[in-house]
Amino acid sequence: MTLALDVSRRGFLAGSAAVAGGFSLGFHIPMSEAAAQGAAPEVNAWVVIRPDDSVSIRVARTEMGQGTITGLCQLVAEELECDWAKVSYEYPTPGQNLARNRVWGNFQTAGSQGIRQSHEYVRKGGAAARMMLIQAAAKEWNVSPEELRVAKGVITHAASGRSTTYGKVADAAAKIEPPKEVPLKDPKTWTIAGKPVARLDTVDKTNGKQVYGLDFTLPGMLNAAVRACPVYQGKLKSFDAASVTGMRGVKKVVAVGDNAVAVVADTWWRAKTALDALKVEWDLGANANASSEATAAMLREGLDAKEAFEGNKAGDADAAIAAAARKVEAVYSVPHQHHATMEPMNATARWTPERCEVWCPTQNGEAAFATAVAASGLQPTQCEAYRINLGGGFGRRATSHDYVRQAVLIAKEMPGTPIKLIWSREEDMLHGWYHPVTMCKLTGALDANGNMTALKMRISGQSILATVNPNGLQNGRDPITFQGLNPGGAEGRFGYSIPNLMIDHAMRNPPLPAGFWRGVNNNQNAIYLECFMDEMAHAAGQDQLEFRRKLLGNSPKHLAVLNAVAEKAGWGKPAAPGVFRGLAQHMGYGSYVAACAEVSVSAQGQVKIHRIVAATDCGHAVNPQQIAAQIEGSFVYGLSAMMHQEITIKDGKVEQENFDSYPCMLLDEMPVVESIVIPSGDFWGGVGEPTIFVAAPAVLNAIFAATGKRVRNLPLKNNDLRKA
C-alpha cells in the first residue's frame, strides 16, 4: 500500500527551509512503513535484502567525501548482523520520504549531524530488521526466536542443526509486524561499527564509476550558463538576446528571476561563450559602493558600542579588570571566506506542467526538493529531487539552493527539455554565501600571582542567521555566534573556569550574505580565545600548557584531549632546532578537540608547518580510520583559510574570481598530521567540523613562539614575519 500524504505544502516548505538553515525538525521514526508497490524486497525502510543475501542499506544523509554513508551503514549492519562484504547503500528521495511520513527523518548533512543525530534510529532500523528476520525463520521452523542465533546473515538453530540465510527469509520477514521494543547492542560488543572498515564509496571513486553533478546526463539534455548581477542584491536591467542568438549551438537566452540571465546551448562551453558576449545592463542597487574598508570600519565601531547581545556571563568582569594587577588587551579579525568547492554549483532540471524533477549535488535533499517545489509552481506530489554525490560541500550546498532554483526557472522556459545548469568558477566565487566577517576585542585580567581573574570578549560582526534564517534569531540575538563560548551545551561549551566573564556580540551585517562554512563560528571563536589564552599565559610568565590546565580543572574532557596532544608532541621537551610549538583546544558539535603544532619561520618570514598532533574525543568512534582522515582533510581546509584565503569587496563586487586569487594549500605546505582518537564512549559527537577548529590557533601560537610576533589579523599572507 501507499501511505496518504498528510502534510500541507506550506508546512513542508517552511520546515525544509528551517532545516536548510541549520535546524532539525522533530519527527517519529516508525520502524517499518508500507513499501511502495513494486519496490525492492525491503524488510523495513532501512534494509533491503535480496535472494543472493546482498544487503542494501538506505541512508538519508549525504556523502561528500567525509565518510558518513559508510559510518551509517556500519551502524545499521552492526545491529542487523549481516555480512559487511555484501553491503551496499542507496539514497531514498525526499519525495519518497514525504510520501512515507518522513520515515527516514532528516536529510540534512551539515553541522556534523550525519551520525550524531541519527545514530539511534538507524541502529533501531537495523536491529528491528534483524528481529523480524529471526522471527520469520523461527516461524518457518516452528521454534522460539530465542533459540536462534545469527552471524553474518546466517540464522542457525543449534538444537536441530538447521540454518538459513537472510536472503531466503527476507520476503517472509517483510510481512511481520515490526517490534515495538527494539533493544540496541552495547557499543563494547561491536564488531562492525567502531572498526576501521573500508569505505563503501572508495572503489567507485577510484575507477571513475562515481557520478557527480557535473557528470550527469539525460537524453536530449541542453546546457545552461548563468550570470547574476555582480553586486549582491542588484537587479537585471536588460539584455540584448539578438546579439548572441545566431552563435553556434545557442538555443535560447532567458532572464532568470530578477537578477540573472542565462544562455541555453547544445554544449556548456558554447553557452558560456555566448554569455560572455551577451550585452547586459545591471541595476547595481544600494550595495554598489560597498567595500572591505567600509565593512572594517563598521566592525571597529561595534567593538566599543554600548549595545550588544549577551552570550556568556559570570561575575563582574568590568570590576575585576579595573582591580587587576595586570590587564591584557588585543583585537583579532577574520575575513569573509568562500567555500570554494572543487565542483562548482550545478543542477539538472526537467519541467513540464505536470512534473518537475531535479538532479543535483546537495547536502540537504529535502531543502533542494522544497526549493524545486517553490520554483516550479507545482505541488510537492508533482516534484522530486534526486541527490547526486558532491564534489565538495563545506556548508555551501546546505545554506542555499539558489542554483537549484535557477535550474528550475530556466527549465520552465523550455518545457520537457532537461537543462543542465553549471556555474562557472567565476560565478561560483562571486556569488557565494560566505564565512562571516568578524572582529573580536579581548580584555583579560591577572592578579598579583598570575591567576586569570576576568575575561571580556566583544565580538563585532556578521550574523549567519540574519541571512539564512532570520526567524531563528532570538529577539534579534544570533545564538550561533557564540559557538564554543557558551556556558554549556553540546554545540560548543566554554571550558575555562574564569570567575568573571562577559562574552557578547555587537551585530554588524555587511552587504555580502553569510552562510554556514565548515566549522562555522567555532573557527574564529577558537582563534580568538586560544590565541588570547596564549597571550595571557605569556603575560603571566607561565607555560602555556600549565596556564590552561589550571583553568580547565572543571572540564575533564577538554583537559584530556589537551593533555593527549601535549604528551604525544613532547611538550616540555626540546623540539628540533629552529622548531617551535603552539597549543589549542576547543569544544563544538558535541566533540572535544585539541592540537599541538610544530612550526619554523625563516629569516625571510616564510612559515613552515612541520607537524600537527591532533586529538578528538567524539564519544563513540564509528570508524576510527575515517576520523583520522577527517582530521587531516579538515586541516587542509582550515590551514588554507588561515594562510591564504580572504574575500574582499571593491565597488560592491567580490574581487577574487578564481583560485589564482583564492589559493589553497599546496602539497609541500601540508604538515605531517598525527591523529589521536579518544572515544570516551558516553556521548555522540561530530567529527567533520570540530577537528578544523584548533588547526589555525595552534599554528598561530607556534608562530609567536618562533618570532615573538602575534598574528591577529588573517590571512597569514597579509602579515610580515621577517626578522628585523
Please give a structural write-up.
With 724 residues, the protein is an alpha+beta fold. Helices cover 29% and strands 22% of the residues. The strands form 7 sheets. It has a 7-stranded mixed β-sheet. β3, α2 (68-80) and β4 (87-90) form a beta-alpha-beta unit. The N and C termini lie far apart (78 Å).
Give the C-level CATH assignment of the largest domain.
Answer: Alpha Beta
CATH architecture of the largest domain: 2-Layer Sandwich
Strands of the widest sheet, in order across it, are 10-11-8-18-15-16-17
The total domain count is 3
Share of residues in helices:
25-40%
Tell me the CATH superfamily of the largest domain.
Aldehyde oxidase/xanthine dehydrogenase, molybdopterin binding domain
Kindly report how far apart the N and C termini lie.
78 Å
What topology does this entry show?
Blueprint: H1 9-20, E1 42-44, E2 47-49, E3 55-58, H2 68-80, E4 87-90, H3 94-99, H4 119-141, E5 148-151, E6 154-157, E7 162-165, H5 166-174, H6 202-207, E8 222-228, E9 235-240, E10 250-256, E11 260-265, H7 268-277, E12 279-283, H8 292-302, E13 309-314, H9 317-322, E14 326-334, E15 346-351, E16 356-361, H10 365-376, E17 383-388, H11 396-399, H12 402-412, E18 419-422, H13 425-430, E19 438-446, E20 452-461, H14 465-468, E21 500-507, H15 521-540, H16 544-551, H17 556-569, E22 580-588, E23 591-601, E24 607-617, H18 624-643, E25 649-650, E26 653-654, E27 672-677, H19 695-707
Parallel strand pairs: 3-4, 8-18, 16-17, 20-21, 24-27
Antiparallel strand pairs: 1-2, 2-3, 5-6, 6-7, 8-11, 9-12, 10-11, 13-21, 14-19, 15-16, 15-18, 19-20, 22-23, 23-24, 25-26
Helix pairs in contact: 1-10, 2-4, 4-5, 10-12, 15-19
